[in-house]
Amino acid sequence: MSFSFSYNAPWLVAEFEMKQRMLSWSITHPGFCDNDRVAWLEVRNSDLTPDIDAQNYMKSMLDKNRLGGALGLMTSRYIEHHHFAERIQGFVKAQCLITMGLSNGAHVGFPDVERSFAKVGTINSLCAVNVPLSDGAMIEASSIATQARTAALMDYYRTDLPDVQAITGTGTDCIVIASPKAGSNTMFSGLHTNVGKALGEAVYAASLEAAAIWHCTNGNWNK
């Protein structure tokens, strides 16, 4: 089941024709849920002062903008910079819609080199396939999406910025996996399956493009 998406600042909204089974650690819907919309909200530091509860703020903004119930994602990245990729392997179609801000980027395993940052960029990804997945396959798909995003980041730094410390993500990333509710579940989604191949390709392509555009508009993360 494909999704469509629209952009009208400060919102980027992806919509499915029918409710999907989703897995994420979204601030509004952590864990498994059924939903037909995913909404990104562009925020600034002034929106989320220390006295503001981020979860309540997000839910109230969704309600005020007739998006109540949607799975919510927040970022300080200008969401006019959103990136989409679609790939097909056999009978599986995978789509990825991503916003990537790297201002709070870090390299996993090296906490002592984490730098200070003025705002939280965040990498938020919606990763959808057109075949139903078991709960286990959705968890495995989340690992594939994480691998693909991280590989794209590291490949970008290796080829385009070899003298710059690569990052593997940010401290506020979120990945949303979506698959249809109806039908016979696909039990596995590893790298050797059509699901894993299509999803990995889509996420890699969208992430690589997003990384290049972020650096063109923001410069190196550790300068």
Task: Give a brief outline of the structure.
Helices cover about 30% and strands about 35% of the residues. The protein has about 220 residues and is an alpha+beta fold. It has a domain at about 20-35 and about 80-220.
Task: Walk me through what this model shows.
With about 220 residues, the protein is of the alpha+beta class. It has a domain of about 160 residues. It is built from 3 helices and 10 strands; from the N terminus they run E-E-E-H-E-E-E-E-E-H-E-E-H. Strands 1, 2, 3, 4, 5, 6, 8 and 10 form an 8-stranded mixed beta sheet that branches. A two-stranded antiparallel sheet has the order 7-9. It is globular, with a radius of gyration of 17 Å.
Question: What is this structure's SSE topology?
Answer:
Layout: E1 3-8, E2 11-25, E3 30-42, H1 54-64, E4 71-75, E5 82-89, E6 92-101, E7 105-106, E8 122-129, H2 135-160, E9 169-170, E10 174-180, H3 194-218
Parallel strand pairs: 3-4, 8-10
Antiparallel strand pairs: 1-2, 2-3, 2-10, 5-6, 6-8, 7-9
Question: Which properties best describe this structure?
Answer:
single chain, 223 residues, alpha+beta, eight-stranded mixed beta sheet, 34% strand, globular
Query: How would you classify the helix and strand content by structural class?
Result: alpha+beta
Oligomerization status of the protein chains: single chain
Could you give the distance between the termini? 42 Å
Query: Rough shape?
Result: globular
Provide the β-strand percentage band.
25-35%
Number of strands: 10
Kindly state the mean pLDDT as a whole number? 92
**Uncertain stretches:** none
Major sheet summary line: 8 strands, mixed
Tally the helices: 3
SSE sequence, one letter per element: EEEHEEEEEHEEH
- Roughly how many Å is the radius of gyration? 17 Å
**Helix share bin:** 25-40%
